[in-house]
Amino acid sequence: MGRLNHLNLAVADVERSRRFYEGWLGFDAGPTEWLGDALFLRDVDAFDLALTPVGDETVIVVGRFHFGFQLRERNEVQALLAGMQSDGVPVTAVDDEPGFFSFKCRDPDGYLVEVAWSERGT
Fold this sequence. Notes:
4-stranded mixed beta sheet; globular
């Protein structure tokens, strides 16, 4: 079986979303390229994030849809949370339990993004 290798997000402003995902979540590891109308960003694990502009359309985020990032160390998640809060990124939840730490935030288009560490690993 193959593995999930990309996610395509409809975004209002490609450059704004690019700055968010490159600056906060590590999608600056490979060459970026336009394929059709989508800008593809890559992380160190060769996972591609495609940002497709929707122009003046409203991006609608439905229900509990979210996607997540697993970090290796609890302190990495804590540091990222502190940096995002300091920069005004909307944080919607923090979960701090023995063996697990995570937070959820909203990207510039309102997508819910979870960042987590678990002592169980990935």
